[in-house]
């Protein structure tokens, strides 16, 4: 940051100089959220404060960004190695896994400005001390150089934000996204806000922050979101909206999921400061217990973010269950179900430790409708204390619970209608299959169309299978329902729907 220099032999000049010092510099230089990103030119050292944001490249040429951490002590002396923070998936892409002291073949290039390629500085990555895709998407890597040496070379580290904002914050993104002719750092500006629910966006973890900074692309992962005034790292980019194809968004019928896909997601790294002692990373301090984790779900492709009540024979709702089988390397595990994902990091209400030989959670979900989160954490002994540091390693899986699928009303003339609204479901979707072996697919099948009004079929076309589901105002789907409309030889007015329809 460039400070204003004042020379004032007269007292009259004091006040103007003080005003210049007190004015906070806008690091984005007036850039607004609706504007495209701008390439950064550093031939005059104007952006030298971001020389520590580098291009991370692995052995097969895949790229991310990473940022050099300021781990200098209270005397502002650099006494330890150089560390960079990036996204966990840039190091090891596996949901439910975290790695400690992992070998890595990669390098990082600092001073990565397109107009000063002669000043690029490339260093080998020595080791990946920690990379995680359990509850967050972060990694901490050690550069094969000391922090003091990098600073001497003109590579400037950045500080982690002292706290995570609970509201909205003005931020900038500095990264090297792919797809631009000028290869180097670019800047965009936006606002960063908290993500209160991550059910709508698979793969988004607790504590996620979201933004709509422009031009984040493949390659932006691992780049820092920076406070617009303090230049502190507020979070590290994980998912970017640009990877969602526009035609998918245009045709998306799930309103809330479509909206979620328009954001970039990032994760705060504030707590990492507890892992440094005298400039050296340690993952076994009182405040830092980052562990190796490997939770492997059986048939993870069958996990649906939406689950549904179903109607039992007596007319009462039957709750679904978690039905999650997994393996975990610790000898024991504990779990609980909560309504808010952040509660996974609270020690209360976890079930007693269970041996992990056959990991299985099949408790009922609900009865309250809406978001539910399953928290699983591995422990070494039955009585191990769940400290705040240990709870940072909790695995989370979320679902959204809805009412049963609305029942169609089939009248004597074989017309089909849905009562709206029904248990909050206001939009009904259907399609008709006249084949003998009709099987109703999931709600994402493109044959489903919105039922703007009822439909009817002459008896000559029967039997037909009606596949249907509904969405509530937030876009969450019900279960898919299968109803077979059959020709009835004789119907009395009292027989109505049930005589002409059977569900399978």
Features:
Immunoglobulin-like, 6-stranded antiparallel β-barrel, 6 helices, globular, 3 domains, 6-stranded antiparallel beta barrel, Thrombin, subunit H
Q: What's a concise summary of this model?
A:
This protein has a six-stranded antiparallel barrel. Strands 2-3-4-8-7-6 form a six-stranded antiparallel barrel. A five-stranded mixed β-sheet has the order 19-27-26-23-24, with no helix packed on it. It has 504 residues and is mainly beta. The protein is built from six helices and 35 strands.
Number of helices: 6
- Helical amount among residues, as a percent range? under 10%
Task: Give the second-level CATH assignment, the architecture of the largest domain.
Answer: Beta Barrel
| Sequence of strands across the biggest β-sheet | 9-10-11-14-13-12
- SS content category: mainly beta
Radius of gyration: 28 Å
- Name the overall outline: globular
CATH class of the largest domain: Mainly Beta
For the report, how would you describe the main beta sheet?
6 strands, antiparallel, barrel
Distance between the termini: 68 Å
């Amino acid at each position: 940051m460039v400070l204003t220099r004042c020379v004032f032999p007269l007292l009259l000049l004091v006040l103007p100089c003080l005003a210049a010092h007190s004015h906070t510099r806008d690091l984005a230089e007036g850039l607004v959220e609706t504007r495209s990103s701008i390439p950064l030119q550093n031939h005059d050292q104007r952006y030298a404060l971001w020389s520590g944001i580098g291009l991370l490249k692995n052995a097969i040429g895949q790229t991310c960004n990473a940022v050099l951490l300021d781990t200098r002590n209270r005397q502002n002396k650099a006494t330890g190695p150089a560390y960079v923070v990036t996204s966990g998936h840039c190091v090891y892409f596996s949901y439910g896994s975290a790695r400690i002291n992992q070998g890595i073949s990669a390098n990082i290039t600092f001073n990565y400005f397109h107009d000063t390629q002669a000043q690029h500085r490339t260093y080998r990555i020595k080791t990946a001390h920690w990379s995680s895709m359990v509850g967050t998407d972060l990694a901490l890597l050690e550069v094969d150089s000391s922090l003091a040496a990098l600073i001497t070379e003109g590579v400037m580290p950045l500080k982690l934000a002292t706290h995570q904002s609970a509201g909205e914050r003005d931020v900038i993104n500095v990264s090297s996204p792919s797809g631009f002719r000028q290869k180097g750092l670019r800047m965009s500006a936006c606002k960063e806000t908290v993500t209160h629910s991550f059910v709508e966006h698979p793969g988004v973890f607790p504590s996620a922050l979201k933004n709509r900074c422009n031009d984040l692309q493949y390659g932006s992962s691992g780049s820092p979101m920076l406070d617009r005034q303090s230049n502190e790292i507020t979070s590290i980019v994980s998912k970017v909206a640009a990877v969602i194809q526009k035609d998918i968004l245009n045709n998306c019928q799930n309103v809330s999921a479509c909206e979620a896909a328009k954001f970039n997601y990032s994760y705060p790294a504030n707590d990492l400061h507890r892992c440094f002692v005298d400039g050296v990373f340690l993952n076994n301090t009182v405040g830092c217990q980052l562990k190796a984790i490997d939770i492997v779900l059986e048939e993870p492709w069958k996990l649906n973010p939406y689950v549904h009540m179903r109607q039992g024979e007596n007319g009462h709702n039957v709750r679904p269950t978690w039905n999650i089988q997994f393996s975990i390397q610790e000898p024991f595990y504990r779990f609980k179900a909560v309504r808010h994902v952040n509660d996974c990091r609270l020690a209360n209400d976890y079930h007693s430790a269970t041996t992990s030989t056959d990991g299985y959670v099949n408790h009922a979900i609900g009865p309250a409708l809406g978001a539910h989160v399953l928290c699983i954490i591995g422990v070494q002994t039955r009585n191990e204390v769940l400290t705040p540091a240990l709870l940072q390693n909790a695995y989370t899986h979320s679902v959204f619970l809805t009412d049963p699928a609305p029942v169609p009303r089939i009248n004597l003339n074989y017309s089909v209608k849905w009562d709206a609204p029904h248990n909050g479901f206001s939009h009904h979707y259907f399609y008709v299959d006249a084949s003998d072996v009709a099987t109703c697919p999931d709600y994402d099948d493109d044959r489903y169309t919105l039922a703007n009004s009822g439909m009817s079929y002459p008896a000559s076309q029967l039997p037909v299978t009606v596949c249907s589901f509904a969405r509530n105002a937030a876009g969450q789907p019900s279960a898919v329902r299968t109803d077979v409309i059959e020709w009835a030889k004789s119907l009395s007015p009292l027989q109505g729907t049930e005589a002409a329809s059977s569900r399978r």
